[in-house]
Design goal:
The chain has about 375 residues and is an alpha/beta fold. The protein folds into two domains: about 140 residues, Rossmann fold; about 220 residues, Glycerate kinase, domain 2 (Alpha-Beta Complex). The chain contains 15 helices and 13 strands. The strands form three sheets. It has a six-stranded mixed β-sheet, with helices on both faces. A five-stranded parallel β-sheet has the order 2-1-11-12-13, sandwiched between helices. Strands 7-8 form a two-stranded antiparallel sheet. Strand 11, helix 12 and strand 12 form a beta-alpha-beta unit. Helix 2 packs across helix 15 and helix 8 runs parallel beside helix 9. About 55% of the residues are buried.
Length: about 375
């Protein structure tokens, strides 16, 4: 497609504005604002994206995957309804659907919360015929190293008396043997991709318990107990060989369980999801990409969706602009990351609470401003 033909074609590939709008809603409001300002001649394609964390299943559904629901064990042991997405033998599983903070309702259980339901969700995807499974991790309520998920899939994690260890990370201190021979045999012929936006190791000062445990209600004492238990668990499971691998510390160590126990391969979440969602094909005809998330900040540059979108688009020579709730990156940091410009809701409404409440209408106004500034940004950034 010629540059002239692409000039009037916009691809919206934004993540959610957490607490305000889903990725699909972000795209809807941007589309409304763009068309109101530019007229019907503007061609807009919406491709909501996610980086493996909260909203990953929603992004897959918006891209045409089928929603499947199943009752599984929640992080506190109670039944919950969890969804995954399925299309043509590929399943997108979001661990937060089964084992996420959203299921705690204020009742933290840092020592005992379990990923058992995530294993049940993976098994449901296998039952539905999936032979490629993208496991998105993030928003977890757990710090059990994925032990619960392994157990749900057939592993036997036993204490010195031959009794299965209890749920949660703290119980792993009593682990004596890990028998993986009973794991679901379908896993051997399934491609399992660990999609994560973090590359923390399992243990230590940058590990699952130390970095993310406090977000799940863990005290300093809890963190020490969990970190030691996870180190012992890794020593039993694989001699600690993969405890330091990138992504091992993701989702309370579920990343480690997937890598060491299920043979998963780690990939940055946004890279995986862009492939699964069809971003490369959509980019072919785009003259401009609009991406974004709730807060465009230093964390954005470390594997978050907008940075991944910008990198992929820049590699194809397509200009990218960003929209966000608030912006704390310098102009130089934006340029280095591949963003030509960035627009924040706080430019229009300085009160953060009102920004969250009025995010949709404010996004439409930002879209109109983008049109006024000129949709087709020149390669020089002028």
């Amino acid at each position: 497609m010629s540059d002239a033909a692409r000039a009037g074609r916009v691809l919206i590939a934004a993540d959610k504005f957490k607490g305000s709008l889903t990725a699909a809603q972000v795209a809807e409001h941007l589309t409304t604002g763009l068309r109101a300002a530019a007229g019907p001649g503007l061609h807009v394609t919406a491709l909501p994206v996610a980086d493996g964390g909260d909203g990953t299943v929603d992004a897959a559904l918006a891209a045409g995957f089928e929603r499947r629901e199943v009752r599984v064990t929640g992080p506190l042991g109670e039944p919950v309804t969890a969804a995954y997405a399925l299309r043509a033998g590929t399943a997108v599983v979001e661990m937060a659907e089964a084992s996420g903070l959203r299921h705690l309702r204020g009742s933290f259980a840092p020592r005992t919360a379990t990923t058992y339901g995530t294993g049940e969700l993976l098994r449901a995807a296998l039952d539905a015929g999936a032979r490629t499974v993208v496991l998105g991790v993030g928003g977890s309520a757990t710090t059990d190293g994925g032990a619960g998920a392994l157990s749900a899939l057939g592993a036997r994690l036993l204490d010195a008396t031959g009794t299965p260890v209890g749920p949660g990370g703290a119980a792993l201190a009593g682990l004596a043997t890990a028998d993986l021979t009973g794991l679901d045999p379908r896993l051997r012929s399934t491609r399992l991709v660990l999609a994560s936006d973090v590359d923390n190791p399992l243990t230590g000062p940058h590990g699952a318990a130390a970095v993310y445990g406090p977000q799940k209600g863990a005290s300093a004492a809890d963190v020490a107990v969990l970190d030691a238990a996870l180190a012992h668990y890794a020593a039993v499971l694989d001699g600690g060989a993969l405890a330091g691998a990138p992504g091992a510390g993701a989702a309370g160590g579920l990343g480690y369980g997937a890598l060491a126990g299920l043979g998963a391969a780690f990939r940055p979440g946004i890279e995986v999801m862009l492939d699964v969602l069809g971003f490369p094909a959509a980019l072919e005809s785009a003259g401009l990409v609009i991406t974004g998330e709730g807060s465009l900040d230093a964390q954005t540059l470390h594997g978050k969706a907008p940075a991944g979108v910008a990198a992929a688009a820049r590699a194809r020579g397509v200009p990218v602009i960003a929209v966000c709730g608030r912006l704390s990156l310098s102009a130089e940091a934006l340029r280095t990351a591949g963003f030509r410009r960035a627009y924040a809701l706080t430019d229009l409404e300085p009160d953060p609470a009102r920004c969250m409440t009025l995010a949709g209408p404010l996004l439409e106004r930002l879209a109109e401003r983008i049109v006024v500034d000129g949709l087709r940004i020149s390669p020089s950034g002028a």
